Amino acid sequence: MKWIAAALIGGSLLLPPFLAGDFYINLASQILIAAIFALSLNLLVGFGGMTSLGHASYLGVAAYISALLTSRYGFGHGAAAVISISGTVATAAFFGVIALRATGLGFLMITLALSQVLWGLAYRMSNVTNGDNGITGLTRPAPFGISLDSPVSFYWFALIVATIAFLMMTGFVSSAFGSSLKGVRDQPRRMAALGFNPWLIRWITFVYAGFWGGIAGLLYVYYHKYIHPTALSTTSSAEALLGVIAGGSGTLGGPAVGASLVLLLKNYASAYVERWNMLLGLVFLFIVLVMPAGIVPGFSKLTAALRGESQ
Amino acid sequence: MQFWIVQGLNSLSLGGLLFLLSSGFSLIFGLMRLANLTHGAFFMLGTYIAATALRAYDGLNLWVMALVAGLAVAALGGLFERLVLTRLKTNPLGQVLVTLGMSFIISDACLMLWGGDSIPVPTPQNLQAPTRLLGFVFPTYRLVLVGLAIVTAVALYFLLDRTRLGAMIRAGVDDRQMARAVGIPVSNLFTIVFCLGAGIAGAAGVLGGPILSAYPGLDADMLPLALIVVILGGIGSLLGAFVGSFAIGFIYTFGIALFPELAYIILFLPMIFVIAFRPQGLFGRVGA
């Protein structure tokens, strides 16, 4: 049953380029990017029990470094990608050391404060980041000489990266290390007594999640060819967190579903209302109050109950 | 010399505002184990209410407005606590998320009602003339603001340290289970403290109005400052909020004046330093 569902989803991901118009293909690419980002946050929230409200930092840092290097300093895309991902990983390593001094709500507050500091920098340090104007006129890379400028080619590129990301992150949580991570989430003191180092396990996960957040950031800046401080804002972190929670934190595919729903809602709503933030807030209230376990677990519970009754 | 003195006074007045904002945040966190991310929005709501009312009616007084807006925001906070937060007693993460959702709703509602331009809040007329002291010129309103923050700090200290209600709150902060067991109505205290914190934040927004003016994004500017104050000073500690507020007031003001582009980095250096050596904050009683 599970495999059939997985095959169906995997198969349907191959369809957009053949069926849909440019608008929907672009939307699908954005969904893939949001899904990678939400999955990386889910490593922290769902599997590590570390609720971060500053995950947009890594998306933003990678995007900004890549944008600055390619547009201002004449770097090629390959070198810029390597440097920006290294910079993002270094940022995550540093922020992790600070934020993991605390757990629970303290961790949440520190991650939020750190990301707000970066947001403030992007806004105020306008001679470097161009401030509120953002950085425009960026280009997409052309890996192996294949231009990614058309919606279809970018979709394939995003799909390949998203597939790798999904497999790598699934492998991460299914590994022995992933088991120790879940152990640290549920019983940190017992894990410490067993000789594990909870801090180190959390920190490695934090850096790994930052790495994939950075990959999502690169795709983000390639897709939009533009970067603005809002990418670093609390709203951006909160959208990803909502995706994770709506989809079901700690499930493998849930956050991807949740992130797609948030993105679709945002796109659909912005055609009709200007007030995306208010809608986002209301959805937050609704999900937390009505479906605290998320849509995917809620749905599978529902189907299980239905199947149980029909037997 | 004049530069240092004026900037010093600006630091003190920002510190005073931050204390009004973060003391409530810290109390709520200490008692309810709830990081109230709506706090910045409560502050901003106070500023907007004052800006509108003071411009619409000439006779209104800023101090009366602070009281009225404080009560209005306290009532809103109380409703939110009773209707939403109490339903999520067993879900601390859910509580934080709904406060985040609420902050988005309030700040977007402010944008919808008042538009994107900043609205200045007039300084009370009898405080517009500068005060001359020892050959230096001080903006009078800022002096009064610092005084008010100190009065509030003393009042809060007496409330917490000398009254029955304060004793119950302290008992709840230190050991919620035990406080319940000896018959303290902890969930009523939650509502009282939440209203109190929200009300002080709303009143602080009014008092900060003449300095900051009302603009969209004011909440996003103030909330991280409050977070940094609380992380620095220690969660649940009034003294920590007091010391942290003035420290951040000085660091931020001088940072902006001397190194305008790096102010944000300078701001988070002391936070990193404190977290590295004393994760519970300078005066923290509650481990986060």
Report on the structure:
The complex is a heterodimer of chains A (311) and B (288). Chain A has helices at residues 2-14, 16-19, 22-47, 56-71, 77-99, 104-124, 126-129, 151-174, 176-186, 188-193, 198-224, 234-247, 254-272, 276-290, 295-310. Chain A has 311 residues and is mainly α. Chain A has a domain at 22-233. Chain A starts with a helix and ends with a helix. By secondary structure, chain B is mostly helical. Chain B has helices at 2-32, 39-56, 62-83, 92-114, 140-162, 164-174, 176-181, 186-212, 218-233, 238-258, 263-277, and strands at residues 131-133, 136-138. In chain B, strand 1 and strand 2 form a beta hairpin. In chain B, 52% of the residues are buried. The chains are: A mainly alpha (311), B mainly alpha (288). Chains A and B meet through helix 6, helix 12 and helix 14 of A and helix 4, helix 9 and helix 11 of B.
